[in-house]
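WARN no homologs supplied; continuing
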Amino acid sequence: MKAALQNYHARMQRVLDHIDRHLDDDLDLDRLSSVAAYSKYHFHRQFTATFGLSVHRYVQLARMKRASHRLAYADAQSVTDIAMEAGYDAPDAFARAFRQRFGQSPSSFRKSPDWEPWLAAFRPVDNARSKLMQKAFTTDDVTIRDVSPTPVAILEHRGDPATLGATIQRFIAWRKAAGLHPKASPTFTVWRSERRPASPADYSIDLCVGTDRPIEAHGEPVKAGEIPGGRCAVLRVVGNTDNLEPAALYLYRDWLPASGEEARDFPIYCQRLSLFPEVPPHEAVADLFLPLK
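OK structure emitted
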């Protein structure tokens, strides 16, 4: 029974990966049921039963998620181009759909995104990807590295995780102004609290970019700091790097007790090697670091 369920999930995972890779293609029922190797007469019901939303709805949300990221973070791309890439024939139709889903027009979202309704709108997609299709890690996925210390510029986020998107947008705008492009300056996230603390006010992370330049604030409370060097257990995650909690839980709950190692007095952190929307979600890569004594 367990093997059959794993096979079923693997076939559904192929569908999600195919959608990620072909968002600009015609993702009709015939094609997607073929990817899953299921009858098209039953596939749409199987998909809905598995993920809690229809294939059509999932594809719409995946395209809209990419579009919203590009609105927020890709200033050089026009709203019209983003609308066309999202599958809309006209900007007006895209604007109506966007406002209905997020309560903001695309141009308003580009200037000042309201991330709380955005998070609520995409929760079904996040649930589909991270809860039902969690990657199973093994000890072979973990390596131990001697890491060099890295000077960084830090923008702290303290408080409700629902407002994290706004902090990320400010961080991206700051690093652009500072000339610290992700391809030349590494991107780190340091978690100083649980992903879901008992009180949202206790949520705490640091957004960091590697640099040894003098810090110019450009109107933001950015400060200089350092990610310390030393031995680290490193777990690479490919795809679905929005939620690294399953990988962190594996390191803490499974790998660490069995390894005989002890954690060092610095929080778990990640380096984001490639990021959505610069690459499709299935190509996003992050290395998770657990500092060791």
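The first helix runs from residue 2 to 21.
OK
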